Amino acid sequence: MESTLCKVVEGLTFCCFYLLSNKSFRRPRKDWRTGAVGFIWILGTISTYFNITKHQTESPSRLIAATTCNIASVALFLWVLLYTNAPSKRPLAACFSESFPSLIHVDGPFSLCRHPVYFSYLLKWTATSLATDSWLQLMFPVLMVCIYTYTAKTEEEFILRGSKREEYVFYSKKTPMFIPFMKM
């Protein structure tokens, strides 16, 4: 039962992220970094499909944790999209976009962490590693932490060169980058 539920939730999570990401973000100019992240997502998806089919863990507690992480990742992602696409807000730019924000989001999901979309993705990659007994699958959360940290820092450096610098500095001092309630 847990095994089938975990597989269904894994598949639905990937579909949700793919469909909603393509429809919800302002697109940047094409950039090698955007292509690299997309390529790694594709590799991760293929690896997840293979590993969850061939090497799924038998541990009910790990399957439940993986399913919980997947559900939390989608819930957070949907919250961000509903919040930023509200009439009074502005949709987020996709990663590596070089457009200065006209609005710094500081409440809603952004009151928990500065990059809730990346945190939702990290929850998703953590879920994939929990669902399998494959050491290969552990590589993806670690790799994605490195990529999202680089991406977030690049975006923040760009914001700090714009007119919202002081507002963002104040916000970043009181709000963690990724993990809610964990100042780093």
Account of the protein in words:
With 184 residues, the chain is an all-alpha fold. It has a single domain, classed as Four Helix Bundle (Hemerythrin (Met), subunit A). Helices cover 66% and strands 0% of the residues. The protein contains 6 helices and no strands. Helix 1 (2-24) runs parallel beside helix 3 (60-84), helix 2 runs antiparallel to helix 5 and helix 3 runs antiparallel to helix 4 (116-131). The longest helix is centred in the middle third of the chain and has 25 residues, at 60-84. It is elongated, with a radius of gyration of 17 Å. The mean pLDDT is 81.
Brief synopsis:
With 184 residues, the protein is an all-alpha fold. 66% of the residues lie in helices and 0% in strands.
Question: Can you tell me the overall shape?
Answer: elongated
For the residues shown, what is the average pLDDT?
81
Q: Please report the total strand number as a whole number.
A: 0
Task: Kindly identify the CATH topology.
Answer: Four Helix Bundle (Hemerythrin (Met), subunit A)
CATH class, named Mainly Alpha
Describe the largest sheet: none
Q: Can you name the CATH architecture?
A: Up-down Bundle
**Computed Rg:** 17 Å
The low-confidence runs, each spanning 5 or more residues with pLDDT under 50, are: none
> Which percent range describes the beta-strand content?
under 5%
Helical run tally: 6
Number of domains: 1
Give the SSE order as H and E letters. HHHHHH
Structural class: mainly alpha
State the helical fraction: 55-70%
Give the end-to-end Cα distance, rounded to a whole number of Å: 38 Å
